[in-house]
């Protein structure tokens, strides 16, 4: 049963495993443990008080709520983009495809600044929106816009290979069997794409929850109104309340663990008939 | 349902996949579209199904023009080469799909699907997923699903292409029986001449997007109109020769009469391996001297490989076991090959049959 002492075909198992664990420990495990350690300096009731303070709660609601809305928006928009990119070859498709990586590659601060300029009361977009009575600067709408932007590639990149893999044979089979387009979509395509779509949305959500760089430029950072969790943590830090900062961070960490677990479950579910 | 195809042309980016094909599929018949890959047979099948729109020409079913009718309204059963089963659905749900889209009641769906599962001998497999089935079982699910909506026409794209030899043989016989019972007009695509000869009532041989010849298996096998059909339907030996004074001469020995060709012309003479006989002594002027190279006695017939005296033409002859016992051929022996039948085609003019 001792699988470590079993003779292996590939040499170098022990050094590679050691290196891997060491790397993981330095980069992930030790920093996270430190976080819990620091938070543990507070006693239970103080910890509870800190993490449930009205300002923190408002920030949770804002961060998770807007991140969820951004994930939903990308669920729709990203699905359409992925579908069009795979199914409908058009001139310049490669350019559009490459542009999708911009939110990954561009520093988020740059994106934040760009949106701030664009959506401010005298920016290109802001002026137009103002005529419609919509204000997209220093408010939640602005946060939603930048979070949707930074999390855009996740849904598209998760769906693309799945749509490619699906091919067109299933639709053709459905058509030959008498199904209308809507029936084909609802009963044949959607069920096969749903796991990937949800996985992409979960990844987008996780990314949006952690976003900081672009949000601070557009949100105005008004406590209770447009202050996201990372800013609450920063606030504690700036007043040298390290334990308080770590406590809020622990809450965020646990939340992202849950999202991570959900993503893994979704991935397993999506492979069930493979 | 009689299917009439009139001068169908289909191009893909300038490549002509189907070139002015006209064809009639008679009601209730099992017809094979036979040809090498790239001959346009699958494209033609997809045009009939409505999965491709032809660039020119028309398809009609029982006299009704369906050229621009979408696939879902044609009431055809299409079996895809790789089955195209819905892998997120159970076998039951796959077969029930055409009934579900037609909004049949749940009881009706259940009754019909159970009948079909019995028909394809997959009772008890209803709750499995396609990934849990073997290739042959998936194929039968695909057939059952295609049959569920009681189509007037069945179209099958390389139905047995992805199966191993034994399963393929079983499914062939089963499909043949099924067709006899249900007598749905059926058209299947294959590149396997044996499959076409064994299964089909009629065979359409395609090459380079066009129909080479169409007819019953016997017709095509015995009276091929082109060298292509001759060599595609079964093994052939090719003898090079020429026509002199109305006589075909192979290697200076007169072999057969080609009455329609009068002038001296290079020709190729085709004989199937079972149409060759082997003698120890020359029988008549048609006997070709040859040397035995290899004898394969495994199988129903004895396969003899010979080299003609010209030194480079290899010939295959299939002998009956009894004839082989008489001759007791050994590799290296000098013998004479006699073609009992030859089909003569003039070189560089594939359209002129003369046998």
Low-pLDDT parts of chain A are none
If you average the pLDDT of chain A, what whole number results?
89
Largest sheet of chain A: none
Number of beta-strand segments of chain A: 0
Number of separate structural domains of chain B: 2
Helical fraction of chain A equals: over 70%
CATH architecture of the largest domain in chain B: 3-Layer(aba) Sandwich
Q: Which CATH C-level class of the largest domain in chain B is it? A: Alpha Beta
Structural write-up:
The complex is a heterodimer of chains A (274) and B (355). By secondary structure, chain A is mainly alpha-helical. Helix content of chain A is 76%, strand content 0%. The model of chain A has no long low-confidence stretch (mean pLDDT 89). Chain B has two domains: 3-231, Rossmann fold (3-Layer(aba) Sandwich), CATH 3.40.50; 237-346, OB fold (Dihydrolipoamide Acetyltransferase, E2P) (Beta Barrel). Chain B has nine helices and 20 strands. Chain B has helices at 41-49, 91-101, 106-119, 135-148, 165-182, 193-199, 217-222, 227-232, 321-327, and strands at 3-12, 15-25, 30-34, 56-61, 64-65, 76-79, 153-157, 185-190, 202-207, 210-215, 237-244, 247-250, 253-257, 265-271, 276-279, 288-296, 302-308, 314-319, 334-339, 343-346. Chain B has a six-stranded mixed β-sheet, with helices on both faces. In chain B, strands 13-12-11-14-20 form a five-stranded antiparallel β-sheet. A five-stranded antiparallel β-sheet of chain B has the order 15-19-16-17-18. In chain B, α2 (91-101) crosses α3 (106-119) and α2 (91-101) packs parallel to α4. The interface between A and B is medium-sized, with 18 and 30 residues.
């Amino acid at each position: 049963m001792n699988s470590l002492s079993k003779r292996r075909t590939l040499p170098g198992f022990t050094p590679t495993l050691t290196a891997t664990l060491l790397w993981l420990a330095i980069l992930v495990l030790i920093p996270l443990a430190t976080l819990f350690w620091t938070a543990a300096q507070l006693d239970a009731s103080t910890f509870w008080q800190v993490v449930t303070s009205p300002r923190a709660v408002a920030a949770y609601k804002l961060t998770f709520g807007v991140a969820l809305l951004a994930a939903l928006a990308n669920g729709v928009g990203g699905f359409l983009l992925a579908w069009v990119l795979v199914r409908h070859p058009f001139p310049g498709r490669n350019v559009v495809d490459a542009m999708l990586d911009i939110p990954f590659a561009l520093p988020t601060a740059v994106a934040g600044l760009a949106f701030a300029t664009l959506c401010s009361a005298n920016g290109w977009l802001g002026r137009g929106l103002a005529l419609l009575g919509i204000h997209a600067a220093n408010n939640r709408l602005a946060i939603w816009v930048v979070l949707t932007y930074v999390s855009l590639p996740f849904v598209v990149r998760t769906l693309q290979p799945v749509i490619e893999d699906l091919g067109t044979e299933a639709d053709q089979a459905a058509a030959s069997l008498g199904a209308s387009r809507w029936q084909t979509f609802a009963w044949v395509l959607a069920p096969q794409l749903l796991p990937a779509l949800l996985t992409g949305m979960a990844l987008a959500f996780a990314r949006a929850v952690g976003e900081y760089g672009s949000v601070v430029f557009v949100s105005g950072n008004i406590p209770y109104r447009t202050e996201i969790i990372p800013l609450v943590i920063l606030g504690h830090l700036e007043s040298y309340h390290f334990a308080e900062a770590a406590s809020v961070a622990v809450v965020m960490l646990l939340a992202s663990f849950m999202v991570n677990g959900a993503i893994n479950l979704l991935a397993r579910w999506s492979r069930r008939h493979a | 349902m009689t299917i009439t195809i009139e001068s169908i042309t289909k191009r893909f980016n300038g490549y002509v996949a189907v070139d002015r094909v006209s064809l009639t599929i008679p009601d209730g018949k099992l017809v094979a579209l036979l040809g090498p890959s790239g001959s346009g047979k699958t494209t033609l099948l997809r045009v009939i199904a409505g999965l491709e729109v032809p660039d020119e020409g028309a398809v009609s079913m029982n006299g009704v023009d369906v050229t621009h009718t979408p696939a879902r309204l044609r009431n055809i059963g299409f079996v895809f080469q790789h089955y195209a089963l819905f892998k997120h659905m159970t076998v039951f749900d796959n077969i029930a799909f055409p009934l579900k889209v037609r909004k049949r009641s749940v009881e009706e769906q259940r009754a019909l699907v159970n009948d079909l599962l019995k028909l394809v001998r997959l009772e008890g497999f209803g709750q499995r997923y396609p990934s849990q089935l073997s290739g042959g079982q998936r194929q039968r699910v695909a057939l059952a699903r295609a049959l569920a909506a009681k189509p007037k026409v069945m179209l099958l794209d390389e139905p047995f292409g992805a199966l191993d030899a034994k399963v393929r043989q079983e499914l062939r016989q089963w499909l043949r029986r099924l067709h006899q019972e249900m007598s749905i007009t059926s058209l299947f695509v294959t590149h396997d001449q044996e499959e076409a000869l064994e299964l089909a009532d009629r065979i359409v041989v395609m090459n380079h997007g066009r129909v080479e010849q169409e007819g019953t298996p016997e017709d095509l096998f015995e009276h091929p109109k082109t060298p292509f059909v001759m060599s595609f339907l079964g093994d052939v030996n090719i003898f090079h020769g020429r026509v002199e004074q109305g006589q075909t001469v192979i290697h200076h020995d007169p072999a057969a009469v080609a009455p329609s060709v009068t002038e001296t012309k290079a020709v190729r003479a085709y004989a199937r391996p079972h149409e060759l006989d082997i003698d120890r002594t020359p029988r008549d002027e048609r006997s070709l001297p040859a040397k035995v190279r290899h004898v394969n006695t495994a199988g129903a017939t004895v396969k003899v490989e010979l080299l003609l005296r010209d030194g480079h033409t290899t010939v295959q002859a299939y002998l009956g076991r009894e004839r082989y016992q008489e001759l007791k051929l050994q590799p290296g022996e000098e013998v004479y090959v006699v073609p009992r039948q030859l089909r003569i085609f003039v070189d560089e003019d594939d359209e002129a049959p003369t046998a």
